[in-house]
Amino acid sequence: MSRIYIAGMISLLSALCPTPSSALEFNDGKVQVHGFASQGIVSSTDNNFYGDSSHNISFDFREIGINASYRPRPDLQFSAQIINLDAGDVSENGLLLDYALVDYTISSTEDRQFGIRLGRVKNPFGLYTTTRDVAFTRPSIVLPQSIYFDKARSLALSSDGVGFYLNKESNFGSINFDLVVGNANVDRGSEATFLRADLPGSMQSEKPSRLMRIMYITPNDRLRIAFTAANIDLEYDARSYEFDPNLAVHLDPKIISAQYSNEKWELTAEYSQMKSSITRSFFPNFNNVIEGYYIQGSYQLTPALQAVVRYDASFNNKSDHSGKKLSAETGLPAHVFFAKDWMVGLRYDVTPTFMVRGEWHHIDGTGWLSTLDNNSDPGAMERRWDMLMLMGSWRF
Amino acid sequence: MMFRALALFLLLLVNDSVAAGDEDVVIAVNQNFTDNQISRSFARRIFTMKARQWPDGSPVIVFVLPDGSPHHLTFAKEILETFPYKLRSVWDRQVYSGTGQAPREVATIDQMVTNIANTPGAIGYLPREKVDGIKIRFIEVR
């Protein structure tokens, strides 16, 4: 019932705002309020993604957010965003504080800017992470799961700590550098990704994560290339009655990103490797290199209609693409250790602030499916499956 | 009825393809900014909402027309050498990650004129003939 209510709300709100409405502004534009609301529908042949989608229609795919920013002086900004997400059984319920920060520009000249951010800051991870919950900023309904895995989305999302940024513009193009140091936020989806279940204890950041991204953009704004590297340390605090109390996870993702943009078309590719080591008391340590990449092309058919196609591949072990070795070691089916996803989609901008999207996925492998959505039984998942998604999204 | 719909459709198509190409679009500023020139990199940093102050330290107030406006298209392509959707993507990334604010959007050229004329520190873009040289000045990109 509440699903229908919220979907109704979204269409009502979008009907009320048919004109290009910019943000709500107060105090001569020093205060801006923006927001977004998206409702998705998922139906799949066999496995569940975003709720009970298998041979069914799931409405458990909703993203709502509102933010405010205040810039009392050119060099100072306060901002915060609250979001509510529904992503099947993977998401946390209720309202989440997505970011809350103060941004101070330490020095600024015509061609250079250097500053600091304090608080809960978004992680500039690859091309899309900073605004991954805002459908308008994504190239498709779901991001390529090889790099932007939704089942452990909280890990990459934000850090409680400090961020530094440096932008420099010259005749040779522009360079943007970001560094973030802070504690990662771990949700139950991330816990289940490493433990294969949401266990009674809690997983948290063991020490501050370190993340840096450097991006170069050519002077004509056609090509941007970026490199991201991070170090994340997590620990699992078990309850006293649990069998294996101590568990530490170390991750060091590295991503190379490239995007070529033209007036009508855009070509994007990212490649990532993540060394993951899990240390446990009563089991042998587990070391692995996770590999993922995608290539994606989009074309603007008319000013309001865009087509997108993508091939996205992820492998739990770089040297075991078929998953056979991991399957032999763990007893789990080989298809849980990879996923190869072909996607085609369309985006139609009904107004500048309301759009609808549809996309179809043809997938070999179940690597990025969460056990939380699939009865904690990897054996019951099907290796080859298809998924249709629709989404309506509104923003101001 | 059919014919009218078709005529309307053709009109829309024509409207769409006629960008402000023949019209000369220039960067326009409030009269309190006295330089006659601005570097392309500074203009870019201003319209991507990264540079937030003028060289004297006063705040920059950025006005833009809607993404679909032909003048916005000409401005983005010819002056900034980018595309409207790339600008929108830069603004969105900042607005929804708390790292910046969006430019202030005005619906029409007349509103752009009024806002630039009445807001110290304002910058936007206009067809050259709309710049009176008194309350609004144009600056060349060097």
Defining key terms:
heterodimer, A: 396 residues, mainly beta, 16-stranded antiparallel beta barrel, 4 helices, B: 142 residues, alpha/beta, 6 strands, 39% helix
Summarize the structure in short.
With 396 residues, chain A is mostly beta strands. Chain A is built from four helices and 17 strands. A 16-stranded antiparallel beta barrel of chain A has the order 2-3-4-5-6-7-8-9-10-11-12-13-14-15-16-17.
Helix content of chain A: under 10%
Overall helicity of chain B: 25-40%
Radius of gyration of chain B: 16 Å
Mean pLDDT of chain B: 86
Q: How would you describe the shape of chain B? A: globular
What structural category do the secondary elements of chain B indicate? alpha/beta
Give the topology string of chain B: H per helix, E per strand: HEEHEHHEHEE
Report the total helices of chain B. Answer: 5
How far the N terminus sits from the C terminus of chain A, by CA atoms, comes to: 26 Å
Task: Explain what the structure shows.
The complex is a heterodimer of chains A (396) and B (142). Chain A has helices at residues 2-16, 153-157, 188-195, 324-330, and strands at 24-26, 31-44, 61-73, 76-87, 95-108, 112-122, 158-170, 173-184, 202-217, 223-237, 246-261, 265-280, 286-302, 305-315, 338-351, 354-364, 384-395. Chain A starts with a helix and ends with a strand. A 16-stranded antiparallel β-barrel of chain A has the order 2-3-4-5-6-7-8-9-10-11-12-13-14-15-16-17. Residues 14-20 of chain A have low confidence and may be disordered. Chain A is globular. Chain A has 396 residues and is mainly beta. Chain B has 142 residues and is α/β, with parallel strands linked by helices. Chain B is built from 5 helices and 6 strands, in the order H-E-E-H-E-H-H-E-H-E-E. Chain B has helices at residues 2-17, 40-47, 70-79, 84-95, 109-118; strands spanning 25-30, 37-38, 61-64, 104-105, 122-127, 136-141. A 6-stranded mixed sheet of chain B has the order 2-6-1-5-3-4. Chain B is globular, with a radius of gyration of 16 Å. Mean pLDDT of chain B is 86; it is low at 9-20. Chain A binds chain B through residues 20, 22-23, 25, 29, 32, 34, 36, 65, 67, 69, 71, 73-75, 77, 79-81, 99-101, 103, 105, 108, 110-111, 113, 117, 121-122, 130-131, 134, 136-137, 165, 167, 169-171, 174, 219-221, 261, 263, 303, 352, and chain B through 16, 39, 41-42, 44-45, 50-53, 55, 57-61, 66-68, 77, 80-83, 86, 89, 92-93, 95-102, 104-105, 107.
